[in-house]
Design a protein that fits this description.
The chain has about 325 residues and is an alpha/beta fold. It is about 35% helix and about 15% strand. Helix 3 links the parallel strand 1 and strand 2. InterPro entries: DUF5672. It comes from Orbilia ellipsospora.
Length: about 325
């Protein structure tokens, strides 16, 4: 029995020595090693189809922004973290905003793995003002060609936020052709386009038959008035939309919020009392990212004589509630 154990121990001790001699033979006799390696069978794997992408090309989240805003990158990355993982993201902007995004390592990583596309806004399209925005979002070529093959389009602007604490997600609303923040409880359908989920095929049907007159209704009003009349359309009503997004009408813990004017326009129905704002900070603290909050009033002028350094370069007259 002991003899058998000693033989096994000797084999175990001899094995590392044998591996060492084998390895050194490749170093001392390189021509032999190359010949040995050349005789090793090579295995090549070929697939009939390319590997399946983890992303669904029919689901696209879209942000268009021409300004290199300080919160542009963190806002985009926040959306990418709360929107279901199979959604792809597209960003269109100006050379300045594209360059601003590309400075971020994590943004470039998402571009490399196919999650995010970053590009200049196609020629002839613009977001510089409400009318330019409406022209872009009622452009047939934009939906049919630029965004193809998207069927579900989540449009979000830099004054809109999805809340990480929400018990809902964007996929819960895919049965509807349009969902946005309600304007009035009496509306049968239609909601703000600044944070909206749209069915592209229904929009294309409208744009193939009608052309928006310049300087008429905003794009979200114009589109929803017509989409609601398309046979078989399913538009979320004003009550249903309260759980999707809140802008002018109060809603307890909606999936997201939309403000207006790049965070300047805060409607009293949602923001008008300290209690409402406290509730919002607790439920959706990330919304502070997009608000123009001025720290000046929190600075003690005696401790900080150069208090004027905290003032904004511009002091536009804001509408709604002042934070």
């Amino acid at each position: 029995m002991r003899e058998g154990v000693s033989i096994k121990a000797a084999k175990r001790a001899f094995l590392p020595l044998l591996l060492l001699v084998f390895a050194w033979s490749f170093v001392l006799f390189p021509h032999v090693s190359r010949e040995v390696i050349s005789r090793v069978p090579r295995v090549k794997f070929e697939f009939d189809h390319p590997p399946r992408s983890p992303f669904n090309d029919t689901k696209v989240a879209l942000l268009i922004e021409g300004r290199p805003l300080p919160h542009l990158t963190p806002l985009l990355l926040h959306y990418m973290s709360v929107v279901p993982p199979d959604w792809r993201f597209k960003f269109f902007g100006t050379p300045e905003s594209v360059q601003h995004l590309n400075r971020s390592h994590i943004v470039r990583a998402h571009v490399n793995d196919g999650k995010l596309d970053v590009a200049l806004l196609p020629e002839g399209m613009s977001m510089s003002g409400q009318e330019a925005t409406s022209q872009t979002f009622t452009n047939l070529t934009f939906y049919r060609d630029v965004l193809a093959p998207a069927e579900f389009l989540l449009v979000f602007q830099t004054d809109a936020m999805l809340c990480a604490n929400s018990q809902q997600n964007v996929d819960d609303w895919l049965d509807f052709d349009w969902v946005g923040a309600s304007w009035r409880l009496t509306d049968r359908f239609g909601g703000n386009g600044g944070l909206s989920l749209r069915r592209v095929s229904k929009i294309i049907k409208v744009l193939e038959n009608q052309v928006r007159v310049r300087f008429s209704e905003p794009e979200d009003v114009w589109l929803t008035e017509r989409m609601g009349l398309v046979p078989g359309s399913r538009m979320a009503n004003s009550t249903e939309q309260l759980k999707f997004s809140a802008e002018m009408l109060y809603s307890k813990h909606p999936m997201g919020f939309h403000t207006g004017g790049s965070g300047k326009w805060l409607h009293p129905g949602v923001w008008g009392t300290p209690k409402l704002r406290e509730e919002m900070w607790e439920y959706c603290p990330e919304i502070k990212m997009m608000l123009e909050m001025d720290e000046e009033r929190f600075i003690d002028v005696r401790a900080c004589p150069s208090k004027q350094n905290w003032k904004r370069k511009e002091s536009p007259q804001e509408l709604g509630v002042s934070i």
